[in-house]
Every structure is written in structure tokens, then in C-alpha cells.
Amino acid sequence: MTRKQRRFTFIIGIGAVLALALVLILTALSEKIIYFYDPSDINLEHKAKAGQKIRIGGLVEEDSVKRGEAGLVQFNVTDTQEKLQVRYIGILPDLFREGQGVVVEGALDEQGIFIASTVLAKHDENYISKEVAESLKEKGVWQGENE
Amino acid sequence: MIGAYKGDSRLMGTALINAPITLLLISFSFFTLMYAYVTSDFSVKNVWENSHSLQPILYRATGTWGNHEGSMLLWVLILAIFAGLVALFGKSLPLKLRANVLGVQAWVLALFLLFILLTSNPFERLVNVPFEGEDLNPILQDIGLAIHPPLLYVGYVGFSLTFAFAVAALIDGKLDAAWARWVRPWTLLAWVFLTAGIAMGSYWAYYELGWGGWWFWDPVENASFMPWLSGTALLHSALVMEKRSALKIWTVLLAIITFSLSLLGTFLVRSGVLTSVHAFATDPERGLFILAILVFFIGGSLFLFALRSNQLQAGGIFAPISREGALVFNNLMLTTATISVLSGTLYPLILEALTGDKISVGAPYFNPTFGLLMLPVILVMPLGPLLAWKRGDIVGVFQRVFALSLFVICATAIAYGFLYDGPWLAPLGLGLAIWAMVGAFAELQLRAGFFNVPLGKAVQRLFKLPGSMWGTAFAHFGLGVTLLGIVSVTAYEQENIVVMKPGQQAEISGYTIVYKGNVPRQYANYISEDSRFDILRGGNVITEMAPSKRFYTTRKSPTSESAIYHAGFSQLYIALGEREDQGGMIVRIWWKPLISLIWIGTIFMVLGGCFSLVDRRYRYAVPKLAKQKKEDITDAKD
């Protein structure tokens, strides 16, 4: 092989790997991402199908937290206009409170109840999830200090 | 503080003395802040917000960098330390290169000092001095805070020096094997610290957050992981450049990219554009400022690169199957992996800007893409060091590792036999890990000539092998060990969530866990309620575990502390949920087989890095003449 040919195969090889990686990245990005919605998106605009993995953000509705057998917790997530019933089995974060911001990850079941696999609360007194803050700002019920 | 800044302005003249002076002044301001923390001087706003006089002294001291302003000060302190090191110990560097390196480093330093002065002054005063501080975020009150940020920052910031070397070489237009030899130890140093920092952070998150996970693909974790990936690539490409004078342009580009990724990481963490467990309380002004710095350095250096790269002559050629070929492959895959992590990290930002959709990208994206890209790297890893430079003999290499391959295939098959109930991929993953671990020592074994020469002589030879060879073996072995831990915990982890009342028990993986009840305790700045569990195996109590719930009185915030029992390399992990109305406790118990190996592997990687570093330093001491000779030879080859 001449130097030119060698360089050519070299570049082809690199190009092939990069192209393959690009395809891999793009397919994964289109399929494996998790959308973030607020309860209005779900109830009014039906943005998510049952079984699709999504995140919901909002406030834990006052007096909505109920505990069942074997660590089952049930509560409503609200954006003050619409609310969504959430069920979760497991350990809630230390800063999980009624009236506070929360993000839940999971999927809707056939009855429209959200089965959560993860519950994230803010982990600092001064911190609230950016998505929740923005969603609440849109609804005009943001009580934080900034803006 | 002002003094430090003034000292820095003078440094623009690139004089060598100014770097140590800057270092002195910045150290002075850093230790002043630390003094304010330790003595609980609440007239300083930063101290008041993040400290409490009742905290143990360790957390009062480490609280210095447990907040945005203080950690930025640590950041620039480390920048200054690196500049000082080059100024004081870089005597073997050509004066021009050294001055240029220090100049570039000073520019980075100056802009970040300006950033601190304008947007995040740690010494802001309070007019009415409060009696007591607001306490440090409880999650940060841990030994992890003492170790993790300094290690990580040394790694992050250490790449600034590599960057400075690259830019200096571009300014100078002189780029040769000697340059690679000077850069590599610094890169290695930064890499060693970054590796340790990431591993420490991962372990800290693992035991402190109580989620039982050791890696979350959180944007901030990615931010530190991307420079690690490209830094690893840089280590390997600089090797090619040093030994064979090839891949010059690529190595310089990689040096620029690595530091750019460090800066990008700083931007992502400080600006709050991404939601993350690490997010500092942020304001947009800071984000914009760092973005400006980022654009300045990346844009500037890439512009310079575009101007100068065609002036740098291409180096030696090599066949695709050769040591260089293998290293190029390593670089290609690592870079692609970096791109895949970068895309996943930035995609939510881009999508939100374009469509307004809010998304998160997590493990379902990262695991398959990243895993698939790493697979071939680890497969090739043991073979690389066995190939000869320039033109390798793949058949010969396969003959040499034939016994090894056979061994690995057998081990995989045996794993299939025993672990039939796990996922089918797991034994393959275990086989791959063993391949990497055993293969890592193949080079040492072959060079020492075990089985061919008498044992005593082989051992003798073994210890005469250069440190860098030991370094490679250890680092590659470490990666295999980490992989072993990852595969085993991913495939064979067991989890049990139960509600327990005192006296009740739960089972997991042959262990019986008996809940005995709670014991309240009072500490200086928090109250704690320890839940006590007896751990039984085969009817005998082997240990007691006591996870707890804490309540920090000043911040009025509760936290949970998990408990871990080490059984060899495996762990039993207990995290507490809240108390139920009928007196039950929600308890989450994990059995995590071989999970400790994940971090033990990184210790080997760090050790490997240190071995290589020692080897380099040895080479530094080699008389100049020898070095000169070597350069002549490599130049002649070009």
C-alpha cells in the first residue's frame, strides 16, 4: 500500500466508526429520553400514553398523602390547576413534604394513575427543581424569591 | 484579595517570579477564608450562610469549599499552584516554552479571579454580625467533602496546564516528541487526581444519598467524566507522540478539548442550566460570565489551532496493525464515547431551546450507547501493549495470548454454569472483565519471560522493567476490576423493601436482618435516631448495623444515614424510610455482590498512574545530553 492508500483506508475506517456511533446516539436519543410534563399536560392535553416512561413535576397536594400496606404511598401532584394521583412503593426522600415541590418518574397505568418508580424532592432548603419552578411560574403561582 | 488580583495583573508580563507570588497571595486569601470558617467569623456573609459554631472543626474547615464562592477560590488556588509548580520545578523546559505556558495559565487565572471578584466575592461582609451561622448543608457534613472536591479540582484544573502547554506550542509553532515528554507527566498527574476524585465522589454519593446507586449519569457527574475520557485518550495519544512522533496535531487538539470539557463542566455546575443533584444556588449572571470565559478560551485556542495546524508537520507512519494502530483505535473509541456522553448531557438543553419540550436523558440512553462503545476498547486493551511499534504481528500476538484466551473462555463457560438465573449477558461481561484483568499482566509476564527462563531470573527481570510498563499493567488491571464490580452488581444485585416493627425480621441473600428498635442520640448540631439491626447468618449474629435518621436543628432539615456491612468485596446496604403510623419503619435492604471492586479498581488505576509518573520523573533526571541525543534521533526519523 502506498502512503496515500493507507491514509485513505485509515480515514474510511474512522469515518465508519463515527457514522456508526452517530446512528447509535441518535436512535438512543429519540427512543430513550424521558419527557417532563406537569399534570395539566397529562389531564388536558393527554401528552403521554399509558406505559410510557415520563417525569411529572409539581407540588405535593396538601392532605393528599395516604399510606397503605407494605410501604405503599399515595399522593396527588398538582400544578394548582390540575392534579394527578401518584402511587409509589419505597422510600420517600427526606425532604418530601405536603405543599412542597416534587418530581416523580414512572408511567401512567390504564386507569390514569401514575405509578412512580422514583420520587425526587428538593435536597436543599434553597433548591427547587428547575423544571418545577418554571412550570409553576407559567401558572403564576411561584412563591420563590427569584424573579 | 485585591492584592492577589494586582499580583496577577503583573503576571501578564509572563515573568517567572510572578507565578509563585500569585500563588502566595491567593493562598493568603484562601487561608484567610478558611481561618474565618474555623473561627466562625459570622461577619463574613459566606461563613454565616454555610457554617455553624457547633460543627466539628473538620467540617468547619472543609466548609470553606462547601459553597459556590469558596469552591471557586479553591479552583483558582489550584490553578495558581500548578503555575507555581511549573515556575519552580520546570527548569528543564526551554525558557520560551515555560514563559508561554505560564502566560496562558495566567490568563486563565486572571479571568477566573475577575469572575470571583465581580460575581462571587467570598469575603462579602455583613453589617449586623449575626450571633450564629446558618449551618452547612447537612449532606455536605461528611468526610467526603474534605476529600472529593480538592481531588476533583486538582484533576480538572490540572488539565489547564496541558492546555497551556498546547497553546504555548501553537504560539511557538514548535511541536516535537520532547514536548510530548514534558506534557505527559502533568497530564498523568491531573488524570490520577481526576480518577481518584471521581471515584471518591461516586462512593460518597453511594453511601450518603441512600439511593444505593454508584453512578447516576447526572449532568455534573458527566461533566467530570468527559474530561476524564478525553484525558485518558490524551494520555494514550501523547504516548504515541512521545515514542513515535506521530499524531501531533491530534494530541494538541485533544489537549485543548480536554480542558474545554473541564471548563464546560464548571459552566454546567455553576450556571444551573441543567437540573442536577449538585446544583449550587445559582444566578444567571454567573453562568453568563463563565460562558464568556468558555467561549474565549475554546474559541481562541481553536482559532489558533486552525491558524497553526498546517504548519505542524505530520509525523511517522505506521501500519494499522501496530502499537500505534491500537492506540489510535483507543483514541477513536474514547473520543466517540466522549461525544456520546456530551450529546446526552447537552441534548435536553438543545431540545428545550428548540421545541420547548422538557426532557431528561438518563441511564436508558447512556448505558447502551456508552457500554457498546467501551466493549471493543476493553477487548483490544490487553492486546495493545503486546503489539510492536510501527508494524505489529497480530498472529504472533494471538499465539502469545492463546493460553489466556482459553482460560477466559473456560471461566466464562463456568460462570454460565453457576449463574444460570442471571441475565445471559452477565457471564459474558464477567468474562470480559477477567480478560482485561489477566490480560493486563500479559506484557509483564512476557517481558519477564516467566516459563521460559528460571523463576528467579524472571522475577529479577520483572523488577527491572520500567515503571511505565508496570503503570500500564496496573491501570488496565484496575479497569478490569472495576468492570467486574459493575457487571456483578448490575446483574446480581438483590433488593428488598419491607415495613418492619421491632422484633421483626427480613431475609436477603442468606442473611437474616432483625430490627431491634431505635435509640435516640444527641450531637452538637443535630439529633439522631439510630435504628439497630442484628445481622444473622446461619443462625449466628455476625454484626450489628445502625442506619439513622438525623435532624439538623439550625437548618431544620432531616437527613438519612445508610449503613453498610462489608462481606468481602460484597456489601449489605440498609437505608431507612420514614416511620409509619403503626410504629413500623420502611426499610430498604440491598445485597450488592462485589460492589467494592468498582472503587478498588480505581485505586489500581491511580496506582498505575503513579508508577508511570515515577518512571517519568526518573527520566527527568537523565542528563540533558541523553535527552538531546534522543531528540536528534526522533527528529531524524521525521
Task: Based on the model shown, name its key terms.
heterodimer; A: 147 residues; alpha+beta; OB fold (Dihydrolipoamide Acetyltransferase, E2P); 2 domains; 5-stranded mixed barrel; 3 helices; 30% strand; elongated; B: 638 residues; 4 domains; 6-stranded antiparallel sheet; 4-stranded antiparallel sheet; 11 strands; disordered N terminus
Total of domains of chain B: 4
**Major beta sheet of chain A, specifics?**
5 strands, mixed, barrel
Overall 3D form of chain B: globular
In round numbers, the mean pLDDT of chain B is 81
Count the helices of chain A. How many? 3
Find the CATH superfamily of the largest domain in chain A: Nucleic acid-binding proteins
Secondary structure: helix percent of chain B: 55-70%
**Distance between the terminal alpha carbons of chain A, to the nearest Å?**
66 Å
Q: How much helix, percentage-wise, in residues of chain A?
A: 25-40%
Number of helices of chain B: 21
What does this structure look like?
- The complex is a heterodimer of chains A (147) and B (638).
- Chain A has 147 residues and is an alpha+beta fold.
- Chain A folds into 2 domains: 1-33; 35-138, OB fold (Dihydrolipoamide Acetyltransferase, E2P).
- Helix content of chain A is 29%, strand content 30%.
- Chain A has helices at 3-31, 39-43, 130-138, and strands spanning 33-37, 54-60, 66-67, 72-78, 83-89, 101-108, 114-121.
- A 5-stranded mixed barrel of chain A has the order 2-4-5-7-6.
- Chain A is elongated, with a radius of gyration of 22 Å.
- The termini of chain A are far apart.
- With 638 residues, chain B is α+β, with helices and mostly antiparallel strands.
- Chain B folds into 4 domains: 1-137, no CATH class; 142-388, no CATH class; 401-492 and 598-638, no CATH class; 494-592.
- Helix content of chain B is 63%, strand content 12%.
- Chain B has helices at 2-11, 18-38, 45-50, 57-62, 68-89, 95-119, 143-172, 177-208, 219-244, 248-271, 284-308, 323-355, 363-380, 394-400, 402-418, 425-440, 442-448, 455-464, 467-492, 596-621, 624-637, and strands at residues 358-361, 494-500, 505-508, 511-522, 526-537, 540-545, 548-552, 557-561, 563-567, 570-579, 585-592.
- In chain B, strand 7 (548-552) and strand 8 (557-561) form a beta hairpin.
- The longest helix of chain B is centred in the middle third of the chain and has 33 residues, at 323-355.
- The chains are: A alpha+beta (147), B alpha+beta (638).
- At the A-B interface, helix 1, strand 1 and helix 3 of A face helix 12, strand 1, helix 13, strand 2 and strand 8 of B.
